[in-house]
Write a structure and sequence with these properties.
Chain lengths: 281, 287
């Protein structure tokens, strides 16, 4: 489903990102000898190219997943798109505007719940809303709405350590939704959960996102999860981090786990993505 | 509840207290015997110690070692004639002022160092230097600046205590999990809000661990200050009784100075429970 609207929700053009490695570490690897030709090129001196020349366009309301081997720069790309870190070169636009710091329409669900341990669930959501300076009754209404949506209303006064891992991650999602983001970034939000909780949450998140109409970019290492959520899967390669393949997932949303389970086309897509990620394609 | 796969995810905060409890219960079934042992052994230990002390003391020159009985009598005497009460209050005052200012300044400077790498690099050399210096050697200089009397003693107390508070606060602040700081920037939190709602609460257990250590140093400052500057208060009594070989009264004054420390520790612990009840550490059985 490639939506050809005038301005895409997210437009990434020719983005490159390098990190400077600690001198000690690169000195050691030089002594050891570079392990491959590409490493010798991309690990030039103390500079490490995490992402090279990334182009990516995400349509309004589209759901895109980033998959790829660990260390290929998925998190780095996500953090640059959300404005959490700066890019070295190239352009990133959200809703046509150049990203410089976190845009106000952006929500972010982290790999860990990232809740403030000294605040109740309710107060964690309130923290996210602080900058909006809403009138108290409006703020309370938003919080109640999002807690209801994520089935956390009865835990509003609980502290994070009193919640299960799945509930903590739901609270993180409720917080991200509280600011009504038009673009939602998620970095392996379910990877720390057990298989059952993860399945249940995938279904819940899918319906919540469907209702909100937000544009989503998800980083995941779970190919089934990528197929379940996405309109498009972006397969990334490492050394240097780059986009190697875009794969369409042509089933209408919202989907259910069950309908994908027996779908041969879904199985094909999943196998193709796996092949690409594992470098067999 | 901890048996399900979906168990609470966040581990309890690490025990940041400098001292560890050596006798944690091995298993719940031993709890009864453990509880009984926990209170009987320490009490028994003290009672036996006092008895041995009493017996040894009675067979020694009372100038060398007073007996617990005579110390108790001396303590009562000094309380009744008001000497000890005044000295106690003076020490509490010096401690309250010197340590209080050290806590406020230390937390402020520590937060600044923890949040600003520039401030950290500028200030850290001095913190490292003074932390490593036996600051009690500054006493003559402080007297030259502040004169002989209470203010000089407050300054000494402050100087001994402040560095530990600075170091612990800045370490606690610098250790704020990056993911929480990212979260704060996603929600456009201002620096003041990041400090108040993220960095400072995270640093609280570190800060209180620092305050407990700093209190001990501050008390040294109070007593040595009184002993070497004004010769008043508890330090003054200690010097007087020592010089005049009144060993029982000397020990009574020393015991009173440890009571000052205990009272200070209790006040800090009450503050911690009031300000930051979530920062409960494993050593809560100690008070
Ligand atoms: N702040 C950083 N400093 C130095 N290297 C970094 C930093 N962040 C990420 N990297 C490096 O960039 C590469 C990509 O990291 P990341 O985006 O986290 O990968 P992924 O999320 O795909 O596993 C990794 O090799 C990682 O070591
Ligand atoms: Mg990652």
């Amino acid at each position: 489903m490639s939506i050809a609207t005038a301005t895409p929700a997210i437009q990434v053009t020719g983005v490159t990102k390098t990190f400077s490695r600690p001198v000690e570490r690169s000195a050691r690897s030089r002594r050891r000898g570079a392990q491959s030709a590409t490493e010798a090129i991309t690990t030039g001196g103390d500079v490490f190219t995490a992402l090279q020349d990334i182009d990516l366009s995400v349509g309004k309301g589209e759901f895109v997943s980033l998959v790829g081997a660990s260390g290929c720069g998925k998190t780095t790309l996500l953090r640059m798109m959300s404005g959490l870190i700066a890019r070295d070169s190239g352009e990133i636009r959200i809703d046509g505007r150049l990203v410089n710091g976190v845009p106000s329409k952006v929500g972010f669900v982290f790999q860990e719940p990232a809740l403030l341990p000294w605040r109740s669930v309710h107060d964690n959501l309130a923290f996210a809303l602080e900058y909006k300076q809403l009138p108290p009754d409006e703020r309370e209404a938003v919080i109640e709405d999002k807690l209801k949506l994520t089935n956390l209303l009865e835990f509003r006064n609980s502290y994070p350590h009193q919640l299960s891992g799945g509930m903590q991650q739901r609270a993180g999602l409720a917080r991200a939704l509280a600011t009504d983001p038009e673009v939602l970034f998620m970095d392996e939000p379910l990877s720390a959960l057990d298989a059952f909780t993860r399945r249940r949450l995938q279904q819940e998140i899918a319906s919540i996102i469907e209702a909100s109409g937000a544009t989503c970019v998800l980083v995941t290492h779970d190919v089934d999860e990528a197929v379940f959520f996405s309109d498009r899967i972006v397969v990334m390669g490492a050394r240097p981090g780059r986009v190697t393949e875009l794969i369409d997932v042509p089933f209408p949303r919202p989907r259910t786990q069950v309908e994908l389970l027996g779908n041969p086309e879904a199985a094909q897509i999943r196998d193709r993505v796996l092949e690409l990620v594992l470098g067999l394609g | 509840m901890a048996l399900t796969n979906d168990a609470p995810g966040r581990a309890p905060r690490p025990d940041l207290s400098p001292v560890q409890d050596p006798e944690a219960p091995a298993e719940p079934s031993a709890l009864r015997t453990f509880l009984r042992r926990r209170w009987t052994l320490p009490i028994l230990s003290v009672v036996v110690f006092l008895i041995v002390w009493q017996i040894v003391g009675m067979n020694l020159n009372p100038i060398l070692l007073a007996t617990p009985g005579s110390v108790a009598v001396a303590l009562g005497e000094l309380v009744v004639n008001g000497q000890l009460g005044f000295a106690f209050l003076r020490a509490m005052g010096a401690l309250g002022a010197g340590f209080g200012i050290a806590a406020v300044v230390g937390i402020g400077v520590g937060l600044l160092m923890g949040r600003s790498i520039v401030a950290y690099r500028v200030i850290n050399p001095y913190v490292s230097f003074f932390q490593a210096t036996p600051l009690i050697a500054l006493t003559p200089l402080v007297v030259i600046w502040a004169g002989i009397g209470f203010p000089a003693e407050v300054v000494i107390t402050f100087l001994l205590a402040v560095w530990t508070v600075i170091i612990n606060t800045s370490e606690g602040t610098r250790n704020t999990p990056p993911i929480l700081l990212d979260m704060a920037s996603v929600y456009h939190a201002k620096e003041s809000s990041v400090v108040r709602n993220v960095a400072l609460p995270h640093a609280v257990p570190y800060i209180f661990a620092g305050l407990r250590i700093a209190l001990g140093k501050a008390l040294i400052g109070v007593i040595i200050g009184e002993m070497s500057i004004s010769l008043q208060g508890l330090g003054g009594l200690i010097v007087d009784f020592g010089d005049s070989f009144q060993t029982a009264k000397l020990l009574a004054a020393i015991i009173t100075s440890s009571i000052v420390g205990v009272v200070g520790t209790i006040i800090i612990e009450i503050l911690r429970r009031y300000i930051a009840p979530w920062s409960q550490t494993v050593d809560r059985g100690k008070l």
